[in-house]
Amino acid sequence: MLHISQNKTTLETVYLISSLTRAQASPEQLLELNRGHWGIEALHHVRDRAFDEDRCRARKGHAPRALACLRNFAISVLRLLKVPNIAAALRELAADASLVLKVLGV
């Protein structure tokens, strides 16, 4: 994997273990699967840090999935607005409901 940032280039070697054969997945496809996994982990990290999701007591029915969808929506909106600190923005929005409507353009 090649990383380029601010005049610095680094090359990283990634080793993956998979039950897929070479015919089922090329190295490029395996790398994409790996990147997708870490993208999901990054989202879960943001959800837990911003919403303290691991302590949520909703466990039955559709509530856990519905809450996850709402949290993902909130994070996505803030990312689209290029908010640098999602947790701080959520605290600010929680303190002022009218600000939520303004952010949503309502």
Automatic annotation (TrEMBL):
Pfam families: DDE_Tnp_1. One of its GO terms (biological process) is DNA transposition. Residues 17-75 form the Transposase IS4-like domain. GO terms for molecular function: DNA binding; transposase activity. InterPro entries: Transposase_11. This is Transposase for IS2404.
